[in-house]
Amino acid sequence: MTDAAYLLVHEDREYLLEPGEEFGTDLGVIEVPEDVAAGDEVDTHLGTVFEVRALRGPDLFNHLERTGAPMMPRDVGLVMGHTGASGGDRVLDAGTGTGILAAYLGRAGADVTTYEVDAEFAAVARENMTTAGVADRVEVRTGDLTDELDALADEEPFDALTLDTGDAPAVVERADDLLAPGGRLAVYSPFVEGTREAALAAREAGFDEVETLETIQREMDFSDRGSRPSTAGVGHTGYLVFGRAP
């Protein structure tokens, strides 16, 4: 069985391509065989050799089609680590966007139901799930999660709830109805005001282990003069609220 897509790499060039796809570059036309597999080599019509590699999680962030600013890998890592989502878990997600988080969760083996209010964004996310090889584990629904809370509360409870939406506090108020005992909550927000509201809502809903983290990351610079954190770029990406259902 072939994967949905592969990374084709030559020196500093890399392209995410599907089996059977033809792609033109200044190094020549790449014709990806239908039976391509990781470890193969593919020559362009000009003789440039590309190495075929299996798709990895970080490649999703770099190559999936974007419909806005996707969740950064550092934030995805915190969500994955604090929720512990893994094979067999049921995850309810809202604010799909590009679908980076949903794809990571699916590749970890979780079954994900994710909501996106923008129909065009949802359509792109579905294509991205196919590319990521998780279309069988990630269901992208078009709609507002807040409109579905009553219906979802009657379903089998979820093991984790992950939110990246402006109305997240309203969902958190009902999170105990959605999660299994001990289920995990993760809320991402770029603004501290929404973060505060989500944290307060989690405490009022009776959640345990409620904590709020700011994500800050700095690269290191190494030179002959010495080593120090880089002064370039902004290390902050956003805020995350975590909690455990009673």
Automatic annotation (TrEMBL):
GO terms for cellular component: tRNA (m1A) methyltransferase complex. One of its GO terms (biological process) is tRNA methylation. GO terms for molecular function: tRNA (adenine(58)-N1)-methyltransferase activity. InterPro entries: SAM-dependent_MTases_sf, TRM61_C, tRNA_MeTrfase_Gcd14. Keywords: Methyltransferase, S-adenosyl-L-methionine, Transferase, tRNA processing. Gene3D superfamilies: Vaccinia Virus protein VP39. Residues 74-221 form the tRNA (adenine(58)-N(1))-methyltransferase catalytic subunit TRM61 C-terminal domain. This is SAM-dependent methyltransferase. It comes from Halorubrum tropicale. The lineage of its organism: Archaea, Methanobacteriati, Methanobacteriota, Stenosarchaea group, Halobacteria.
